[in-house]
């Protein structure tokens, strides 16, 4: 019966554990207890804990290319920024529920693992490049990204602060007025 639990159930439990307790909380025994199943169910889906951890990191790394960029391509810069912020507003609560990967969890994990930090840094460079293409101004790009990082860091410390992101996103749009010349986001 335990094998009826799907791989996605284990990933969701692992995402939550990573967000709430860091990488040390992502243990097969703890996850099995949280899911109210035996450890045997885990091994139907993963070879070992390392494969589970790598799956968590890979799904976060792929999120930008597979989920975000395709939705933004071909849009005008301002429209792309509005959509990006809307997607972020939608995704934050899903990350807190373990449905999607969490930036907060990944950044915390990267702070204790050089190997993870290298992968997170590479993914972060890709995110910043996307923002530069949308915004067109390196300084404003940096400001927007630093606001996001501050939001993520504060959300780890101050319970409930993530609920304020819709208002923060709206305020951010005021910092980025529509350009006088409308340009579409380039396809890559």
Structure description:
With about 190 residues, the protein is mainly α. The protein has a single domain, classed as Tetracycline Repressor, domain 2. It is built from eight helices and no strands. It is elongated. The termini are far apart. The relative contact order is 0.12.
Index terms:
188 residues, mainly alpha, Tetracycline Repressor, domain 2, 8 helices, 0% strand, elongated
Number of helices: 8
Over all CA atoms, what is the radius of gyration?
18 Å
Proper CATH architecture: Orthogonal Bundle
Work out the count of structural domains: 1
- Mean pLDDT, as a whole number? 89
CATH superfamily: Tetracycline Repressor, domain 2
Based on secondary structure, the structural category is mainly alpha
The name CATH uses for the topology is Tetracycline Repressor, domain 2
| Largest sheet features | none
**What is the H/E string?**
HHHHHHHH
**Any low-confidence stretches, pLDDT <50, length ≥5?**
none
Write down the overall geometry.
elongated
Strand content: under 5%
Span between termini: 46 Å
Topology:
Layout: H1 7-21, H2 28-35, H3 49-72, H4 77-96, H5 103-110, H6 114-135, H7 138-157, H8 165-175
In a few lines, what is going on in this structure?
With 188 residues, the protein is mainly α. The protein contains eight helices and no strands.
């Amino acid at each position: 019966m335990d094998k009826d639990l799907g791989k996605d159930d284990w990933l969701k439990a692992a995402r939550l554990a990573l967000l709430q307790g860091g990488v040390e909380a992502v243990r097969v025994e703890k996850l099995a207890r949280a899911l109210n199943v035996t450890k045997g169910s885990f091994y139907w889906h993963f070879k070992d804990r390392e494969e589970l951890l790598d799956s968590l990191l890979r799904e976060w790394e792929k999120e930008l290319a597979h989920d975000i960029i395709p939705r933004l391509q071909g849009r005008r810069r301002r429209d792309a920024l509005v959509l990006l912020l809307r997607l972020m507003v939608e995704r934050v609560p899903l990350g807190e529920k373990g449905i999607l990967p969490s930036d907060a969890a990944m950044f915390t994990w990267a702070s204790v693992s050089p190997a993870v930090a290298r992968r997170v840094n590479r993914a972060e460079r890709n995110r910043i490049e996307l923002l530069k293409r949308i915004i067109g101004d390196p300084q404003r790009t940096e400001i927007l990204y630093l606001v996001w990082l501050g939001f993520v860091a504060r959300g780890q410390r101050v319970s409930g602060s993530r609920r304020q992101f819709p208002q923060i996103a709206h305020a951010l749009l005021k910092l980025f007025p529509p350009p006088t010349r409308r340009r579409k986001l380039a396809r890559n």
